[in-house]
Structure formats: C-alpha cells, structure tokens
Design goal:
about 30% strand, three-stranded mixed β-sheet, about 110 residues, alpha+beta, hypothetical protein PF0899 fold, elongated, binds zinc ion, 2 helices
C-alpha cells in the first residue's frame, strides 16, 4: 500500500525533528498533500493511524491540507487549476504547462511539547 509507506516516512521525519528538539511528544502536525500527488487522503488518514502507533506522535492530532493543483500555461501564461496532467489551458487550449503546485506531499509543521 502506497499510502502506508508515505505515512511511515512522515512519521520518521517527525521523529527526526522531535529528536533534534529533544521533545518526547508531538502535539500536532500538519501535512500538505497536493491533488496531483497520487495520494488518496482517506487512505493516508487510515495509514497514519497505524504509523503513529508507538511513535512520538502517538498522541498527536494531525491535519491534512489538500493543496489544489495549479498549472501555468507555457503559451499564454494563464494560471489555472488542474485535476490531471492532460487538461489543456482553458484560455488558449494549449497543452504545454508548468505545474506550480499540487505534486507535493510535505510535512508542513509540527508542534512539540
Ligand atoms: Zn494558455
């Protein structure tokens, strides 16, 4: 399961951070997940519940922020929301685009005790 390995990675990252700050417990953490990241948020929630067990964030509350993907058209410069890599620009119908955001899965913040 893809989401489980992501969840485990996230928890490892949090543990490294907590260790650096000499914290024994993590209160809260936030993750940004782009809509083009390929992650199913419900599945990630479920995987996190498993991954936090016996870790520094076993008591933490978490928040997953869904980041809507945005692309910039290479032809006309229009910035628009995308759900996939294949939709053309709504303004000029050009296919060339640069994805500005939405591919990321990242740890946004952690709050330690
Ligand atoms: Zn365009």
């Amino acid at each position: 399961m893809h989401e489980l390995s992501i969840a485990v990675n996230i928890v490892e990252m949090i543990e490294e951070n907590a260790e650096r700050e000499k914290a024994h417990n993590v209160d809260k953490f936030e993750i940004d997940v782009g809509t083009l990241s390929g992650v199913v948020i419900d599945a990630l929630e479920f995987a996190l519940e498993e991954a936090v067990k016996d870790s520094v964030c076993s008591k933490a509350v978490w928040k997953i922020n869904k980041i809507e993907a945005k692309a910039k058209c290479r032809k006309c410069g229009h910035v628009y929301s995308v759900d996939d890599y294949f939709s053309p620009c709504p303004k000029c119908m050009g296919f060339g685009k640069e994805i500005l955001q939405g591919k990321e899965i990242q740890l946004k913040s952690i709050t330690v005790e």
